[in-house]
Write a structure and sequence with these properties.
This protein is α+β, with helices and mostly antiparallel strands and 323 residues long. The chain is built from 15 helices and eight strands. It has a six-stranded antiparallel beta sheet with strand order 1-2-6-5-4-3. The termini are far apart.
């Protein structure tokens, strides 16, 4: 997907929260992009303090960039293309990364469907692009929180910790939006606050090990997919599942298929072979024709809606705070 920037000057420039004026940018796309499909994986639950979807179709993100906190608003223009504004010390960094965020580094033409179901999903979801944030820690920390627990538990932990220890998003962000804590603040969270958020000692310790070497972790954003995963997996407690979930977002890695997931092998097996009992090995064999694009294939399978009927009861949420 190719695009070009055309700077746009606002008619008014009003100083907003944090003393920062909005920095505008427009982005004309040669091909359409579906903001919801492309940026949706960055949202950690419906109440994620760092992400908000507007009723007008716009998307708001609050991020901690190398230049500091920033808020980004992206919307599709009525005449086509995308318009964006950003606020805060990280505003320029966020706007410079806008093309990659919207999939400019992605190459959907490299994907060749090998199954009828995948081909149908590919046609219906033509606006899907693989986002690339260029930010590792903002995807790594919530991915660690999602280890071995229900998604609701992980989303709650992320929400509580970011709201309590993060900072309000710069600019006119919707109420309740926050930028995640900086590395120093993560290290200072008391053990009982992790427990109140439902985070066990193992996951908390993994996050603390990662934030201590955050600059080394962030370097993975500029690495090839497998090498990026290897960098993250140097941290005890970070395995292939967590590293894949992270670089899918930070690097836009099209081949970073998630292994070790409780549900994905059965979904892929059922969709492609009618086998709901498929394990990781069977899933990887089924996805082998998509080598180089296995993550995209898995996304399309999930978007197809063909999932095995539920038989087993849902995982019961735990209560770390009561232990």
């Amino acid at each position: 997907m190719a695009g070009r920037f055309a700077p746009r000057t606002p008619t008014t420039r009003t100083t907003l929260r944090g003393g920062h004026v909005p920095v505008p940018r427009s982005f004309d796309l040669e091909q359409g992009v579906d903001l919801g499909l492309t940026l949706g994986p960055l949202r950690r639950g419906p109440a994620d303090p760092t992400f908000r979807a507007g009723r007008d179709g716009s998307v708001w993100r609050a991020s901690r960039t190398p230049d500091g906190p920033g808020t980004l608003r992206v919307a599709v223009r009525a005449g086509g293309g995308v318009a964006a504004e950003a606020w805060g010390p990280g505003a320029q960094w966020l706007l410079d990364g806008l093309p990659a965020l919207l999939g400019a580094d992605d190459d959907p033409a490299a994907f060749v469907p090998r199954h009828r179901l995948v081909a149908a999903a590919h046609r219906r979801r033509a606006g899907l692009r693989l986002t690339r944030t260029g930010l590792v820690m903002e995807s790594l920390i919530p991915s660690i929180l999602e280890q071995k627990v229900t998604t609701d538990e992980a989303y709650r932990a992320w929400r509580l910790l970011v709201r309590k220890y993060g900072e309000p998003a710069p600019g006119p962000a919707p109420d309740g939006m926050h930028v995640m804590p900086d590395t120093r603040t993560w290290r200072q969270i008391p053990s009982w606050e992790w427990h109140r958020a439902g985070v066990d000692d193992k996951r908390a310790a993994t996050i603390l090990r990662a934030v201590r070497v955050a600059p080394r972790m962030e370097e993975a954003a500029g690495m090839e997919g497998r090498k990026a995963q290897e960098r993250l997996e140097l941290i005890p407690g970070i395995g292939p599942w967590t590293s894949a979930e992270t670089i899918q977002r930070s690097n836009g890695a099209p081949d970073a298929v998630t292994v070790g997931d409780l549900h994905l092998p059965g979904i892929v097996g059922y969709a492609l072979a009618g086998d709901r009992t498929a394990d990781d090995a069977a899933m990887l064999e089924l996805l082998a024709p998509y080598e180089g694009q296995r993550h995209r294939a898995a996304r399309l399978i999930l978007l197809s809606g063909r999932v095995p009927p539920r038989r087993a009861p849902r995982m019961t949420p735990g209560n770390i705070a009561s232990l």
